[in-house]
Amino acid sequence: MSRDRLITVKRTSVALFGVASMACSEGPTLAPNDARSSADTREDASAQPDVASITDTGVDVVRDAPSTPDASCTPMVLPPAPGVTVEAPFAANYRAYDLGRVPGLPATRYGGCLIDRDDPDLMYIGVDSETPMGTIYSIRVVRDCDRHIIGYSGTARMVASAPYVDANLFYDRDGNILFSMWPVDQIAVLRPGATMPSQVISLMSFGIEQQASPGGLAFVPTGFTGAGELRAVGWPNFGWFRIPYTYRDRTYTLATAERRAMFTNGTGGFAYVPPGSPMIDRPSLIMAEWATTVSLFDVDPRGDVVPSTRRPFLTGLTNAWGAYFEPVTGDFMFPSWGNDRVIVVRGFATPQPPPIPPPG
Question: Which of 24, 37, 86, 88 has its CA 20 to 30 A from that of 71?
C-alpha cells in the first residue's frame, strides 16, 4: 500500500502503548532473527494543533553511565536482515544486518536515530513518529571488536519530548539536534540538555506548503559548494528544497525556500554518502523510499539531488523511512517505521563531522 493512500485511510490507532518493563540484562541484548509484523498505516495529523509555541525547559538530559569495553573482546555475528537484498553491483561490498527492536520502547513507529556526539555507545531514536506524542529515547548500544554496533544493552529511556518527529535526527556543529516534523511542516531544534524543543520553525512561512512537509532533512556536508546549507524533501508532494538560513546564538532564522527538484516516488529520510565508500565514486546521497526500497542518487556540486540518477541499493524492506550514517564505523542505519526494528548496512566509509554553518 502506498504511503499517500495510507495518509488518507489511517486514523485507526494513535494510542500509545505503555513502555515495556524490561529488566536490564548483565550482557548485551542482541538482535533477534525473527521478522516483525507489517507496519501500521501512517497517521493523518492535519487536524493536530500547531506546536510552534514550544519552548526550552533547560532541564539536563539524564544519561546512563558509559559502558566499559571488554578487554577479552570476542567478535559477535549479527543475523542478516530477513528478506532484505543488497542490489547488484553493491552486494559485492555491502551487507545488511538486523539489530531488531529496541528493548524498552513502546511498540510503535520509529523515527530517525542518532549516536550521541560525546558517547559513541549511546543512541537516540525517535518514537511515536509523526504524532503529537512523539518523543526521543536513548539506548546504550553494544559494539564488536571492530566497533560495529551489534545490539543493545539495558532498556531505552525517554529523554525529550519531540512532537511529530520524523525520518531524520542530526547534529549541528554546536551540538543542537535538529529534526523534521511531519505532517505539520515544521523543523525543531533541541539544544543540549533540553527535554523539549528549544525552537520550532514553521516552513509554511518560507514557501514550503504543507503537502511538501519534510520527512527528510539534512545539512549539505563539507566538500560541497553549499556546505552547511539545509536541504529537505517533502511528502506527499515530493519536492526537493534548498532552505537558506542564518544562525546566531544557537538560533536559526530561515529565508524563503527554493524548490530545486521533484521526485516521482516515495521520499523519506536521506543522508549524504561518506566520500570514499566502495563502488560509489560520485558524490551521492542515499534515501529511504517508502515503503520497500532504499536508493542512491547523484548530487551536484551544490549538494542538490539529481533524481534521474536513481539506483536501487536495498530492496525487500518493510517501511523504509529513517536514514543515518553512524560516526564511528560509517555503518548506515535506518529505523523501520511501524515495523519497529533497526537495520544496519556495513561497508561505507566513515562520515565527516557536521559542517560549519554558512556565514550570515
Answer: 24
